[in-house]
Write a structure and sequence with these properties.
Length: about 90
């Protein structure tokens, strides 16, 4: 708020009262704390999803390794049955 100075008559900005400021600051602090809480909740949720997907990826990697080993074993058995390859 701006008022004319009583001594010189020039417009002067009047500072907000400490009660008004502290009320505004309290509201702002409360809002920021709520936003931080919501942000942390979302981070926790996403971290959970990432962990679940990491576990699923590991399972698929193990399954792929098992299939590769099985393929090698079957190819070895097939080669043994066919005998030596003629040149």
């Amino acid at each position: 708020m701006t008022l004319d100075c009583q001594k010189c008559g020039k417009p002067t900005t009047v500072p907000a009262s400490s009660a008004t400021r502290s009320g505004e600051e309290s509201a702002k602090i409360s809002d920021l704390q709520q936003q931080l809480k919501e942000n942390e909740s979302q981070r926790t949720e996403i971290t959970g999803y990432i962990n679940q997907l990491g576990i699923q990826l590991h399972r698929w990697q193990l399954r792929l390794q098992t299939l590769k080993e099985r393929q090698e074993k079957l190819q070895t058995e097939l080669a043994a049955i066919r005998g030596p390859t003629p040149r």
